[in-house]
Amino acid sequence: MSNSHLFLKSGFIQTPLQNGLGRYIPQLQRVTLKFCKNKGGSRGMRDFIETDLMDFAKSNPGTVVYLKPKRHHAPVMVAEYLNGEREYLSCHQFSRDEIQKWLTYLCTRSGIPVMRFRKYQHTDYPTIQGVWNPFTHQAPEANTSEFPNAILSRPAHEAPTASEQLVEIFKRTKISDETKETEK
To answer: Could you write out the DSSP letters of every residue in 76-108?
Structure first.
């Protein structure tokens, strides 16, 4: 077990103003790409700016992109979020694809700093069974099958519908009524 969590801030789960409840508001406010026009470590950043920056700007209209050429400096991405947080990412020797992936990552973040989550409850005897999730007792065949799948899509037990149950009750009462009439 690692103890790297000891150096992280701890806190409770926060959501940015119930984002996505009515509509989704991207939390990334602006991105500043700092790079050198000549230095070799900025080559991936320059390639990204030449080829993919316009596509990124069109797909993220709510994010402002600033370009700052800085002579003799390593490339850096600075992301500023709506909650006031800033995140710096050194892009020294990154390829164009790596810069695009990191930029996508920064766009999907909420801006809340990475932290160790705390719980509201505590127990002196933690479970040894592990944590439950919705996929705990699912069939392992679902991992490798192609969907839609006729076998996995049908219900686990074929329970009769409410209409079928009513028809069955009606048939039983009709038969019991007929047997009472024949006995008279």
So the answer is: EEEEEETTS-EEEEE-TT--HHHHHHHHHHHHH
